[in-house]
Amino acid sequence: MLRPQPLPILYQSDDLVAINKPHGLLVHRSPIASDASEFAVQLLRDQLGQRVYPVHRLDRKTGGVLLFALNESMNSAMQQQFADGLVTKTYVAIVRGFTPDEQTIDYPLRRDDRPDEPVFQESVTVLNTLRRTEISLPSGKHATSRYSLVELRPLTGRMHQLRKHMAHILHPIIGDRPHGCNKQNKLFLEQFSMNTMLLHAQQIRFQHPVTGQEITISAPWQAEFSRMAQTLFLDSDVTAVGS
What we know:
The protein is an alpha+beta fold and about 240 residues long. The protein is about 20% helix and about 30% strand. It is built from 5 helices and 12 strands.
């Protein structure tokens, strides 16, 4: 089945292109997702009519900025920048509960690709709360439900880092499986017919390896993220932190 719309292009030059990756789209083929038939690499290649190289990754259920190189030399240069921590990545997420105004989560994470070995890696995420909301939705023994819209900036690049760090501080991302809250995920499915993960890669910033120009690429929220933000009143300045 063909995707009805082309992938939304946020930025394009002679050697780089960025898209606003839809929630639910895999970046490339994976043996752990045999049910998928569409992949960002192939879709963008066909859309542009040329080979593309993903220089970083986003989880299948994460939407937002996804950057590709258009030649091998740029691919190598950008992958090195990501590896050296020279690319600033900013995400937004809707999470359970009222988060603190600011918090640095410094919590080592075990490597998923070595399940039989106790290999832990330094992992640091900076959190800033943008808005909070409390709605009249019973949850368990509580008559209301509380949620926060947070900005997350990973200072390291570990697999599922943001998802694991938010679960660690007991503010899991809504829709996250398996690190999130099953009760909240079920609640959102039943009440709002929402079955995605509310994590969005909002911006990346880096220095162009050839021109030295500072590049900032931002992605607007996609439909489902916007719908849930509106439903939970998290898109209104009324609930903004400090208001």
